[in-house]
């Protein structure tokens, strides 16, 4: 069975890839076969030492497979020239590995330079990508990696991998070296990026939560490089194929399924809003008429970005609304934030509602704990109807 | 080749093993000189280096003087000591002066390099100043300290050769006299003897290091640093 | 004691000695560097050669310089060649070792990234590993240069010597001024070379400067 990338129509069948690591006498990877459709993120997840990184490195031949085949769009990787192959595959690792002696701009342009792009085009592309990953080119292109923070370096790493617009990307715990807050932000941004780029991505992590959040498809691996289960995150959570998978996923898999949904999937409630300077009497009237009967008003700025809540008891009878009256109490939830994280934030903040915002920070609506509960119930219904294990796509043979 | 066989002939000639210019005498002179110089240098330099390393004061001055000392050619130092009287004494003083810098530098560096955490732990356990020095700093810094003495010793053996220029003795005599007399076998024989002695000294210290330094430390250092200024010796 | 008048009157001679000294040094370090580069790259690529290479260059380093020159004299005479062969030998251990350690010292994730981006082995070496090894290599070159400047004085005994000639003549002619000129000159050259090379190193590694800033 084979790892195949490209359109599903190009699927092939063959023996198993077995990689050998120098120290071990058994194969590090023994029985691994699956198909990754183009434009999807496939996550390899499993405990330490299960061979997931080895498998990843076989794709760009940093480790040479000793048997079996890895096909990209139907072409075996071992048949291609190794440097050629690698220039068409983006590679991002945990420690990033930026070249300290090159500027950020030069780092990003490494592969374009190898491919012989004209200098102007190299520079253009580097700037384009830096902006794409959220770094201001004019500020950063001349700097050196040692001058950047961990999160910034990781972004440059992603930019560098994308520079030559490779169809395939390999990522090995890319967000592992940063703190959880930065990690979450990077994950969200990456997912956003992927929506625009639709690259085929093979992603390795040991964190099942990350796998579920990031993956369109998940390959759970166990010791000895064996595939334990292959399927969508929901399938893995709803129908673990073995005890191992069930244990690995964790006893809280019901809750984990909450991570599959994102804030963007929730139905949002509409708060009563007002701008600073609006008439207070009018605002009081609207709060009183609010179908949600929350007793609160959300103050927003000219761009519709939230400033804070004002309770009806704090609203003056007349006059313009002042910014100082507003108290920011609710967590702000981006569309990519998982419902699980959103629930967690709501519980933490001990408020009734979180504010869903778009990528520019504008208010979209409110998220409540009840709303999340409704989604869970709905999801359970759907999953129960799918309880019979699905044939095809995944599982090991 | 002719020179080689001539040299072998010279070395195996019985006559060259007797008398005041014989190999045993010259060898002994050379060794005496070297040992004396190294011992004196250790007596002077080691306490100095350890003290400065332990207290951390005066480090910059000591290092600067040491480094400056290296820049001065050994030949010059030997000649400069001539006013003290030709022969053995001049050479000895010069050699001691040459031998001190590597010992001091390395003793200082070895002590400084000791892990701060280790020292804190030692003090935390109640070890006083001198005990910390003797029981922790020196053993931990031993590889570097020994390397300094080794560097020094080999340098001394090498430079003692030059002593012959100022009418000193030792194996250098053969080389210098050989130059004067254009006596190739003598030149090469002397060179071979000196080289042999230097290599033996190097090996002896390598053995000493193996014996004296704890295996745990040796494995750490195996990672090998580039030759830093403190470790480089002047070939002389 | 120092005859300043003599110095003033013999600037040409002194300059000549100094120049000779510089030439001897530059040639020795230059050739030594070239050979070390080959040896160093060989040693880092074919690991098993590192041991033998270190042993041989180490051996040459241990042999006292006068002895080394002495062994060469019957073959190459009291000549510039003899001096240079000896001087070059002394640079090999230090520079080779520093090249190997410098290249080895490149962090594994950087090597991995370089390979994964599709740089050929040669490109990895030339564009990534060697540039990053520059600080360590230059440290070795500096030590080798200062050492060589010192050793050049010994070559005075085989008829070369640069400023070493002045030292020797000072002794032989009982003329302290010449001796003094020779010593001070050598020291100035040594210190100057060290600082100059340090400058060069800084210039070659702009990214190191960025770190402090």
Description:
The complex is a heterotrimer of chains A (397), B (236) and C (213). With 397 residues, chain A is α/β, with parallel strands linked by helices. Chain A has helices spanning 52-59, 82-87, 104-108, 110-114, 119-132, 137-140, 150-162, 180-197, 208-214, 233-238, 243-249, 253-256, 280-288, 339-349, 369-385, and strands at residues 3-6, 18-19, 34-37, 41-45, 65-67, 70-72, 75-76, 89-93, 168-172, 200-205, 217-222, 226-231, 273-274, 296-300, 306-311, 332-333, 353-357, 363-368. In chain A, helix 5 (119-132) packs across helix 7 (150-162). The longest helix of chain A has 18 residues, at 180-197. Chain A is flat. The model of chain A is unreliable at 4-26 and 388-397 (pLDDT under 50). Chain B has helices spanning 2-12, 23-55, 59-71, 74-80, 88-112, 116-124, 129-160, 172-181, 184-212, 215-222. Chain B starts with a helix and ends in a 14-residue tail after the last helix. Chain B has one domain: MetI-like (MetI-like fold, Orthogonal Bundle), CATH 1.10.3720.10. The longest helix of chain B has 33 residues, at 23-55. Helices cover 75% and strands 0% of the residues of chain B. Chain B contains ten helices and no strands. With 213 residues, chain C is mainly α. Chain C has one domain: MetI-like (MetI-like fold, Orthogonal Bundle), CATH 1.10.3720. The longest helix of chain C is centred in the N-terminal third of the chain and has 35 residues, at 11-45. Classes of the chains: A alpha/beta (397), B mainly alpha (236), C mainly alpha (213). Chains in contact: A-C, B-C. Chains B and C meet through helix 3, helix 4, helix 7, helix 8 and helix 9 of B and helix 3, helix 4, helix 5, helix 7 and helix 8 of C.
Which keywords apply here?
B: about 240 residues; mainly alpha; MetI-like fold; C: about 210 residues; 10 helices; about 85% helix; about 0% strand; elongated
Give the CA-based shape of chain B: elongated
Q: Would you tell me the overall average pLDDT of chain C?
A: 89
CATH class of chain C: Mainly Alpha
Distance from first to last alpha carbon of chain B: 28 Å
CATH architecture of chain C, by name, is: Orthogonal Bundle
Sheet bearing the most strands of chain B, described? none
Total DSSP E strands of chain B: 0
Question: Please, what is the CATH homologous superfamily of chain C?
Answer: MetI-like
- Helicity range of chain C: over 70%
Count up the domains of chain B.
1
CATH level 1 name of chain B: Mainly Alpha
Structural class by secondary-structure content of chain C: mainly alpha
CATH architecture of chain B: Orthogonal Bundle
The CATH homologous superfamily of chain B corresponds to MetI-like
Give the C-alpha Rg of chain C: 20 Å
* Radius of gyration of chain B over all CA atoms, rounded: 20 Å
Instruction: Summarize the helix and strand pattern of chain C as letters.
Output: HHHHHHHHHH
From the 3D structure, determine the CATH topology of chain B: MetI-like fold
Q: Secondary-structure element sequence of chain B?
A: HHHHHHHHHH
The mean pLDDT of chain B is 81
């Amino acid at each position: 069975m084979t790892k195949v990338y490209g359109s599903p129509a190009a699927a092939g069948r063959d023996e198993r890839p077995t990689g050998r690591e120098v120290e071990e006498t058994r194969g590090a990877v023994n029985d691994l076969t699956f198909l990754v459709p183009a434009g999807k993120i496939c996550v390899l997840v499993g405990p330490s030492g299960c061979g997931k990184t080895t498998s990843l490195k076989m794709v760009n031949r940093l480790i040479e497979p000793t048997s079996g085949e890895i096909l990209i769009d139907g072409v075996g990787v071992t048949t291609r020239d190794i440097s050629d192959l690698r220039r068409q595959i983006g590679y991002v690792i945990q420690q990033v590995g930026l070249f300290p002696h090159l500027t950020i701009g030069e780092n990003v342009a490494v592969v374009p330079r190898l491919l012989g792009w004209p200098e102007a085009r190299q520079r253009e592309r580097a700037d384009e990508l830096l902006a794409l990953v959220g770094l201001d080119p004019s500020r950063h292109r001349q700097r050196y990696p040692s001058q950047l923070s961990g999160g910034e370096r990781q972004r440059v790493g992603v930019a560098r991998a994308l520079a030559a617009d490779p169809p395939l990307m390999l990522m090995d715990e890319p967000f592992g070296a940063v703190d959880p807050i930065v990690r979450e932000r990077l994950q969200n941004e990456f997912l956003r990026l992927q929506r625009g780029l639709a690259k085929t991505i093979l992603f390795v992590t040991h964190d099942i939560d990350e796998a579920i959040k990031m993956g369109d498809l998940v390959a759970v691996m166990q010791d000895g490089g064996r595939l334990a289960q292959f399927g969508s995150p929901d399938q893995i959570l709803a129908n673990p194929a073995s005890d191992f998978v069930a244990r690995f996923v964790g006893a809280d898999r019901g809750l984990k399924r909450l991570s599959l949904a994102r804030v963007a999937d929730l139905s949002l409630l509409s708060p009563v809003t007002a701008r600073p300077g609006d008439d207070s009497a009018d605002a009081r009237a609207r709060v009183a008429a609010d179908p949600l009967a929350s007793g609160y008003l959300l103050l927003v700025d000219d761009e519709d970005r939230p400033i804070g809540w004002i309770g009806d008891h704090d609203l003056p009878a007349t006059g313009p609304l002042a910014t100082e009256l507003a108290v920011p109490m609710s967590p702000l939830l981006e569309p990519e934030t998982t419902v699980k994280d959103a629930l967690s934030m709501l519980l933490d903040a001990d408020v009734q509602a979180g504010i869903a915002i778009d990528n520019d920070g504008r208010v979209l609506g409110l998220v409540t704990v009840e709303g999340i509960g409704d989604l869970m119930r709905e999801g359970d219904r759907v999953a129960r109807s799918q309880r019979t294990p699905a044939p095809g796509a995944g599982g090991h043979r | 080749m002719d020179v080689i066989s001539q040299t072998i002939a010279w070395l195996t000639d019985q006559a060259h093993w007797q008398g005041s210019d014989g190999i045993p005498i010259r060898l002994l002179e050379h060794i005496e000189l070297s040992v004396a110089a190294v011992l004196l240098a250790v007596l002077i330099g080691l306490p100095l280096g350890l003290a400065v390393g332990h207290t951390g004061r005066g480090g910059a001055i000591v290092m600067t003087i040491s480094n400056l000392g290296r820049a001065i050619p050994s030949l010059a130092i030997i000649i400069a000591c001539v006013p003290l009287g030709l022969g053995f004494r001049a050479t000895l003083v010069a050699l001691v002066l040459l031998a001190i810098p590597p010992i001091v530098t390395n003793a200082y560096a070895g002590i400084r390099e000791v892990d701060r955490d280790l020292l804190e732990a030692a003090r935390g356990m109640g070890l006083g100043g001198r005990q910390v020095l003797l029981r922790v700093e020196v053993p931990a810094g031993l590889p570097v300290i020994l390397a300094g003495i080794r560097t020094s010793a080999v340098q001394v053996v090498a430079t003692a050769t030059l002593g012959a220029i100022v009418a000193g003795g030792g194996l250098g005599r053969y080389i210098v006299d050989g130059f004067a007399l254009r006596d190739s076998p003598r030149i090469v024989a002397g060179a071979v003897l000196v080289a042999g002695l230097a290599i033996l000294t190097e090996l002896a210290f390598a053995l000493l290091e193996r014996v004296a330094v704890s295996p745990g430390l040796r494995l750490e250092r195996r990672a090998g640093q580039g030759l830093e200024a403190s470790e480089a010796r002047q070939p002389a | 004691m120092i005859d300043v008048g003599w110095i003033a009157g013999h600037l040409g001679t002194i300059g000549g000695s100094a120049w000779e000294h510089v030439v001897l040094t530059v040639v020795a370090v230059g050739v030594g560097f070239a050979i070390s580069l080959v040896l160093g790259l060989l040693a880092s690529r074919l690991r098993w050669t590192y041991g033998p290479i270190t042993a041989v260059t180490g051996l040459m380093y241990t042999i006292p310089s006068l002895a080394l020159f002495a062994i060469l004299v019957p073959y190459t005479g009291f000549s510039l060649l003899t001096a240079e062969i000896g001087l070059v030998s002394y640079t090999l251990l230090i520079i080779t070792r520093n090249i190997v350690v410098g290249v080895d010292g490149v962090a594994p994730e950087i090597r991995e990234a370089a390979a994964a981006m599709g740089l050929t082995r040669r490109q990895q070496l030339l564009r990534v590993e060697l540039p990053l090894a520059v600080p360590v290599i230059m440290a070795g070159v500096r030590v080798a240069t200062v050492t060589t400047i010192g050793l050049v004085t010994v070559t005075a005994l085989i008829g070369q010597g640069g400023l070493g000639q002045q030292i020797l003549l000072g002794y032989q002619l009982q003329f302290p001024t010449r001796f003094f000129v020779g010593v001070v000159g050598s020291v100035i050259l040594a210190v100057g070379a060290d600082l100059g090379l340090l400058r060069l190193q800084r210039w070659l590694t702009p990214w190191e400067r960025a770190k402090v800033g």
